[in-house]
Amino acid sequence: MVFSLVFFRVHIPNSVHFDIFKCVTSTPEILFNHPDTNCFTDCIQSLGVWPDTHVVAYDRLGPISAYRAWRMLRVRLPSEHCVAY
């Protein structure tokens, strides 16, 4: 996907790319549904995110993706350690 290529060119050092559309099954009624819980958990754990991990979600192209990532983390991994920029 193009977004991952942009990430690798302009990312903050030591940050990791999180695909907000991974594990999402769209329907005609809801284009970007919440991800499957098990798939999402496996995905974020593979990035090194655990319930006690401090997460800063950011997007250099605009805040929408950061807000979506923050929301998914808050719903699936309730924690007070997640901030969106």
From TrEMBL:
SUPFAM superfamilies recorded: Rhodanese/Cell cycle control phosphatase
For this protein, the record's Gene3D superfamilies field holds: Rhodanese-like domain (3.40.250.10)
Q: Does the keyword Plastid apply?
A: no
Q: Which InterPro entries match?
A: Rhodanese-like_dom, Rhodanese-like_dom_sf, TST/MPST-like
Keywords associated with the record: Repeat, Transferase
Q: Residues in domain Rhodanese?
A: 7-74
Instruction: Give the superkingdom in one word.
Output: Eukaryota
Q: Which GO terms describe its molecular function?
A: thiosulfate-cyanide sulfurtransferase activity
Q: Name one GO cellular component term.
A: mitochondrion
Q: What is this protein called?
A: Rhodanese domain-containing protein
Species annotation: Dreissena polymorpha
